[in-house]
Amino acid sequence: MLQDKLGRQFHYLRLSITDVCNFKCTYCLPDGYQCDTSREFLSVDEIRRLVAAFAELGTSKIRITGGEPALRKDLTEIIKVCKSTPGIKQVAMTTNGFNLENKVSEWTQAGLDALNVSIDSLKPEVFKLITGHDKLTSILRGLAKAEALGLNSIKVNTVLMQQYNASQFDEYLNWLKTNAYTLRFIELMQTGDNLSFFEQNHVSGESLKQKLLSQGWSSVIRDKAAGPAQEFYHPDYAGKIGLIMPYSKDFCASCNRLRMSALGQLHLCLFTEHGIDMRTLLQQDEQKESLKQALRLALADKTPSHLLQQGETGITQHLAMIGG
Ligand code: SAM
Ligand code: SF4
Q1: For a substitution probing ligand 2, which of 17, 29, 164, 317 has the most ligand atoms within 8 Å of its CB?
Q2: Where are the domains of the chain?
Q3: Half-sphere exposure (Cβ direction) of 260: Cα atoms closer than 13 Å
């Protein structure tokens, strides 16, 4: 098992397969994807070698992310490769859902176990304002299709922002009365590119937590290996709520994930100062032991915590770079 000096174990890999995105989310890529870096993303063979090495080091869950992972034409093959790797128990994906409706059955057949779909408003016009795309109705149909296909873990990611959707908190709760999804409110994070947007729009996760508790929601006791999200349930609601509060004390203590960029750089933290190149060790099957050794060694440098509270965002200009 990959483990750092603080005893944190890493059984979960977030694998970015592209940093290209077709949406223009106000907090992430407000001017759209800028084609100013290499687009030679990890090939299926490189991904196969990478996932095999991680799996032998104890990784059991892979989350495919991006940019927008569904823009890759070989996504279905990538899902199959991850799923067929011995030791990998769960293949998840985070998507903006733009082609969910058309593709979810293909992805499920390929072995996708869990899906997170970002939906930043339940009002079509606000959704369009935030993302630049009039796609909400299709995405909601895609979610229903995923549910009908029997996908056993469906989550919706939402970033609440003062100027856009914070007033829709109650509307989201109402939606959960009859929809058995887990809705995850992700607290807006500052990145290199969004400082003034962050200052104008940040909604504290702690304030959402207090609102939930005052409205009869209860905290789910989760074990330490479950990761940093806090979960809440309510007997009158079919759905659950997760809060991802990166600014809360102790958020990093339960960190159980590592990140790989679409160019093959290992990121020990979302807000790290630098990525560690692993791509040179992904060129041949025979390099597996060297790759495993390099991964073990890299873990020695994992810092106890990010420094977001102090406004230090490392090299992360926006989360499309590394997949959130
Ligand atoms: N494009 C896909 C999507 O939007 O679901 C996957 C990549 S996106 C970077 C992953 C998650 O990060 C999304 O749920 C998005 O809302 C979240 N995210 C992006 N920028 C963020 C920020 N500055 N603060 C908090 N969450 C952010
Ligand atoms: Fe694209 Fe996801 Fe960033 Fe939105 S949050 S711009 S969908 S990468």
Answers
A1: 29
A2: 12-154+251-310
A3: 26
Region 155-166: what's the mean pLDDT? 97
**In the CATH scheme, what architecture does the domain 12-154+251-310 have?**
Alpha-Beta Barrel (3.20)
What would the mean pLDDT of 122-131 be, rounded to a whole number? Answer: 98
Q: Which atom of ligand 1 is nearest to the CA of 187?
A: 25
189 lines ligand 1 (CB under 6 A): yes
Sign of the CA dihedral 193, 255, 92, 125?
A: negative
Ligand 1 atom showing the smallest separation from residue 320 Cα: 9
- HSE of 148, CA atoms in CB hemisphere, 13 A: 9
Give the closest ligand to the alpha carbon of residue 120.
Answer: 1
* Proximal ligand: closest to the CA of 63: 1
How remote is the CA of residue 19 from the centroid of ligand 2, in Å?
9
3-state helix, strand, coil in the chain (%, to 5): 35, 15, 45
Q: Residue 38: its pLDDT value, please? A: 76
59-78 mean pLDDT = 97
If we measure between CA atoms, which residue out of 153, 2, 10 comes closest to residue 90? Answer: 153
Answer yes or no: is pLDDT of 245 > 80: yes
**How far, in Å, CA of 174 to CA of 161, rounded?**
19
C-beta of residue 23 within 8 angstroms of C-beta of residue 133: yes
Alpha helix locations (H) across the chain?
Answer: 44-56, 75-83, 100-110, 124-131, 136-148, 169-178, 195-201, 205-214, 288-299
Distance 134 CA to ligand 2 centre (A): 15
At residue 242, the 3 state secondary structure works out as strand
Whether the predicted pLDDT of 41 surpasses 90: yes
Q: Which residue has the tokens 């592209």?
A: 18
